[in-house]
């Protein structure tokens, strides 16, 4: 590409790959298009069921398998984990500092989930969630439980749960503590990020400039 004269640096055709450039100040144009330097990338994914939140796995497809080659080449990783049978919002990035800040127990970043529950959730359950549920290995911080709808015929409830932690199977275990069972779980939000309703399961996109600015400001 260089030898064919398809690259210009600061307006001059450049044929040597040895030229040192300042990625912040020099203008590089390839085939008439200005190239933008980016150290970090940020992708929002609507994770489907059946794939795992990891960079590699010998048995299952991972969320990285859903990305294209260019996105994968940025060496991104999922920020936090969603169970293999949980779907919804997942952030992927190569920004380790941001990931650490979002996952830090000290920051208590809120995450909201929508769940389909086998059983009827009650106002008593709302109060139990608000107090903090004592599980076998840890006590959950107070959480917000909203009952979205109840189907008395099917004996099912649809709920929203907001937690400030992200322990293993936490939402499922909290619901089980109340004597009910989660049959479908979707993450809707993480901090300031909200799942894009236009993203089908398995689809992903870059964060918008506004989404990224608000997210970075929230952990500053």
Describe this protein's structure.
With 220 residues, the chain is α+β, with helices and mostly antiparallel strands. 18% of the residues lie in helices and 29% in strands. The protein is built from five helices and 13 strands. It has helices spanning 69-72, 96-103, 123-131, 170-177, 209-218, and strands spanning 7-9, 12-13, 28-30, 33-34, 42-47, 77-78, 87-93, 111-118, 144-151, 156-163, 181-190, 193-194, 204-206. Strand 11 and strand 12 (193-194) form a beta hairpin. The longest helix is centred in the last third of the chain and has 10 residues, at 209-218. The radius of gyration is 22 Å and the shape is elongated. The model has no long low-confidence stretch (mean pLDDT 95). Keywords: Isomerase, RNA-binding.
Distance between the termini: 41 Å
Globally, the shape reads elongated
Q: Helicity range of the residues?
A: 10-25%
Tally of contiguous helical segments: 5
| Helix and strand composition category | alpha+beta
Mean pLDDT: 95
Q: Give the DSSP E fraction (strand runs of 2 or more residues).
A: 25-35%
The stretches of 5 or more residues where confidence is low (pLDDT under 50) are: none
Query: Rounded to an integer, what's the Rg over CA atoms?
Result: 22 Å
Q: How would a textbook summarize the main sheet?
A: 9 strands, mixed
**Could you give the order of the helices and strands?**
EEEEEHEEHEHEEHEEEH
Number of strands: 13
Keywords:
220 residues, 9-stranded mixed β-sheet, 5 helices, 13 strands, 29% strand, elongated
